[in-house]
Each structure stands twice: as structure tokens, then as C-alpha cells.
Amino acid sequence: MARRKIVAGNWKMNKTPSEAVALVEELKPLVASDDVDVVFCVPAIDIIPVAEAVKGTNIAVGAENMYFEEKGAYTGEISPAMLVDAGVKYVVLGHSERREYFAETNETVNKKVLKAFEHGITPIMCCGESLEQREQGVTMDFIRQQVKVGLQNVTADQAKTMVIAYEPIWAIGTGKTATTEQAQEVCAGIRACIAEVYDDATAEAIRIQYGGSVNAATAPELFTQADIDGGLVGGAALKPDFGKIVNYK
Ligand code: PGA
Hints:
Elements (H helix, E strand, L loop, with lengths): L4 E6 L6 H11 L8 E7 L4 H7 L5 E5 L16 H7 L1 E6 L2 H6 L4 H13 L3 E6 L3 H6 L2 H12 L5 H6 L1 E4 L13 H18 L2 H6 L1 E5 L7 H5 L6 E4 L7 H6 L3
Parallel strand pairs: 1-2, 1-8, 2-3, 3-4, 4-5, 5-6, 6-7, 7-8
Helix pairs in contact: 1-2, 5-7, 7-9
The chain binds 2-phosphoglycolic acid.
């Protein structure tokens, strides 16, 4: 069975609540699609107004992070139950910016992935190598470790429903998209890794996105590769171009 494409915007730390609503209103008609899942992953404070603004559309709301405890003395954190109650369906976990600036590790990402599943939130688990790792020829070793540790104790049935975003760090926010061949090669490698950890059926079902300077010009070729099931889009998700990326065909 063909996998359904999924294109998610990662707004990062952009847009105040009122700006967020204005952007949703602008993008709503542009991202309408019958055959692509569309997700807006927005800053925590924007979730409630954005969830309201997307009602009746094909847009699902995602969070950019989440804590792995249920509740309690974790000042500043957001729990999975809070996200669910606010209307969140997806959560970006282990983005390279969180790994770099906020001390996320494969182990904390794994705890968050498990917790997201417990609450029925679909994880978009990020992985990707640095430029140094690519030059050293250890890209796939590094990513396999991120994927394997991130998925510890995740069942095959859960894994089938999740999303993995391959985002080479050197391509994020740099305007330097990976070549189609590079992106396809790693996404195929991730799928092979899933087949090893689980089985072929799980590998066939899981959706793998490419992310890193995706734009309206590069999306069509990227998203039609055999192992690329859509994209995680940063900068271009804040512009009308996002509509062209969603409707890349
Ligand atoms: P970019 O960001 O599209 O601006 O490179 C992608 C991401 O970090 O998810």
C-alpha cells in the first residue's frame, strides 16, 4: 500500500499568537489538499489559537517539543496531556536545535517518543548528521544509533504510525538542500534500519520525511523519491510558498 505523504511546517521560535492566526488565515486556502497530510508545528503559546483557526480545514496542529513526565514540579515544561487537551496531534521530538541548545539526547528523545505514544500523539522524530560526520563517512552509523535508541521499547504497531524526519544539520536554515540522491540514500538507509529492528511491514509503513532548506523548487523532486514521504519544512513554512510545497505535484 502506498504511503500517504506528510508535509509539516516547523515554525520554530517564530510568530506571536496573533501573528500565528494571521499566518494560518493566509495559508489555509493554499495548503488545501486531499492526498497530503498537512501539519503546522507551532510554538507552545500559539497552539490554542492555531487549533481554533484551523478548525474545519485539513490542517493538523503539532507541537515542537514536549516533556516526558505526566505532571509535577518541572517549571517551564509542557506535558503530553496539556498538548492533547489543546488539540495537538503531532509532536516534533529530537530536533537538532533541541539537541544542540537544550541538551536533548537519544535517551531523552526515546522517553518522549514513548510518552507521546501513551497519549496518542504521533511523534515526528528527527535525526541527522553534522557536516563533520558526513565528511568523516559516519553519517549512517550516527543516524542508525539515533533511530535505534530513539525507538527503544517502541512496538512495531506504534512505529508503523510514526514519522521520522531526516534532517542533515548542515542543510537546516542554510539554504543548502541535500541533493535528491543524498536525501534518498539516507531515507532508504533509515528504512532498512527499521526493517532490521522490526520487520519489512513496519519499514514499509513508517513515513520518513526529508528536512533542511526544502523550498517550492526542491520539493517536487525530493518528495517523489521512493523512500521520501514528504518534508519537515522550517523557513519556507512561514511563507505562501508552503502551499506550493504541500501541492508539490
Ligand atoms: P529549514 O528548517 O527548512 O529552515 O532548513 C528545517 C527544520 O529545521 O525543520
